[in-house]
Design a protein that fits this description.
The complex is a heterodimer of chains A (256) and B (331). Chain A is globular, with a radius of gyration of 18 Å. Chain A has a single domain, classed as P-loop containing nucleotide triphosphate hydrolases (Rossmann fold). Chain A is of the alpha/beta class and 256 residues long. In chain A, helix 4 packs across helix 5. In chain A, helix 6 links the parallel strand 7 and strand 8. In chain A, the strands form 3 sheets. Chain A has a 6-stranded mixed beta sheet with strand order 6-7-8-3-9-10, with helices on both faces. A 4-stranded antiparallel beta sheet of chain A has the order 2-1-4-5, with helices on one face. A two-stranded antiparallel ribbon of chain A has the order 11-12. Chain A is built from 9 helices and 12 strands. In chain B, helix 1 runs antiparallel to helix 3 and helix 4 runs parallel beside helix 6. Chain B is an all-alpha fold and 331 residues long. Chain B is globular. Chain B has a single domain, classed as ABC transporter involved in vitamin B12 uptake, BtuC, CATH 1.10.3470.10. Chain B starts with a helix and ends in an 8-residue tail after the last helix. Classes of the chains: A alpha/beta (256), B mainly alpha (331). At the A-B interface, helix 2 and helix 3 of A face helix 9 and helix 10 of B.
Amino acid sequence: MSTLLEARDLAAAIGGRTLVSCLDLKLDAGERLAILGRNGAGKTTLLHTLAGLRAPLAGDVSLCGEQLSALAPRRVAQLRGVLLQQQIDAFPASVLETALIGRHPWMERWAWESTADARTARQALAAVGLAELEQRDVHTLSGGERQRLAVATLLTQAPRLALLDEPLSHLDLNHQIAVLELLASRARESGMGMVMVMHDVNLARRYADRALLLFGDGSAQCGPVAEVLDAPTLSRLYGHPLRRIDAGGSDYFIPE
Amino acid sequence: MPTRRRALLVIAVLLAAGLLSLAGALLVGSYSIAPGEVLARLVGNGGSGTGADIVLGLRLPRALAAFACGALLALAGALMQVLLRNPLADPYVLGVSGGAAVGALSAMLFSLPLIFVHGGAFAGALAAMLTVFGLARGDGSWTQSRLLLTGVIVAAGCGAGVALILSLAPEQKLHSMLFWLMGDLSHAGSPWPALAVAAIGLALVMPIARDLNLLARGDLVASTLGVKVRSLRAAVYALGSLLTAVAVTTTGSVGFIGLVVPHLVRLAIGNDQRVLLPAATLAGGALLVVADTLARTVIAPQQLPVGVLTALLGVPVFLYLLSRQPKGGRE
């Protein structure tokens, strides 16, 4: 198994507040890690630090065995993709054009999108159920459709590591499962590694191999979902009591 | 889906429109010259005479200056719209033209020769640009709103300076000052520097046009896809401002072109900067040539400020394009 992402002694802060400190993390190909924590606990800050979008306060991050800060931005974009928490469209653009921006890191300076690029983008759109909408303007999409387009753009980019900030936001139940299943299939088939910021404990338990809990005070806990996710820890994590329910062999957490 | 073929087609059409506008500018005027004679003068075997003097000495430089300035303003406007991620941005939004106006009008106020008016405009534009650049960088964060706010405030300050000069100026100078403020090509001088700057500017942005596509979608999106956002933003700001400075130095602050031409082109062909930047450059040039030809002919021998005509021409075209906005998608 090749290591996609490694963080050593990592610290991250925002607005003068240290949210993560002394974090060691390793992610192999095909592995899925869920980041859980309260609002403002530093989930996005950590994800952006791992993505190289902000510099760490201390420690370092390496991507596919190379120091992140030493890699050229274009190379970084070939290795890792980021699904941002918000999608902002200042200018009109079609759905297909928007998915095609994922090819940018793979294209030479004077190249235009090839038919192969278009095929990749169309396959990604089909995978998230947007094939019929490829000519639509992004401004006419619903929130959930826009979110699925962002997932399609990430799949078009085809990175080895995907860093997803709330991949399920705006999605209905049906599409939450569909997107998680789609990502799971990419992890199985092409070995894409994933770090997902999530809010749904039960989906995290079902669709992640490991969970990283951020307590917001710099402390963190990481381990396989079956070990880390238990009622007392989650109650402490969210500051609200949770109860574990056994429903026919699988466990679910519900808030009291 | 964006293709190179479509881009080349759009550019070929606009190139033809540009040449057509220049031909029109050479032919039309209070002194009528036959098309054959104009052509003969242009290829250089027409000898001398009044016709040759008018075509080569007056109309050609003026038409080329108009083309260059229209091109500069439209390109600068397109860059500012990407930089500020706002389709309502124009080349003047960050105060460059305000600085130029203060410089040029000060020179006029003290009755300095024309060269000082041009020099004052350029110096003023650079001063405004450096002020905004220096202040907006501040803590190095370079945020959108900070840049926009700094620019708007500097522009407002310059506006006050212009108002002050206008109120101090003797009446016989007001007319030329107002013409400068509205944009006027009758004192344009040699068109070659502006043309060269427009060509260099376009040559500089074409290799980074696809990066600009990403920048238009947001700094974070661009960063995640491998664009060096900070250096790109600084470069785009510097280039956009310099292009604007050269344009206003040549013709005064011609309004409307920088705002509306990129927008118009975007409505017609989409927001792919690889097509939009060259297309806006050509369309801006052609539009200003047409506007200037009209400005010197509609009520000849009197001349109108060209800025008035760019607006009069642009507004109906713009409203038409806006009203036929595609329902939902584009081809």
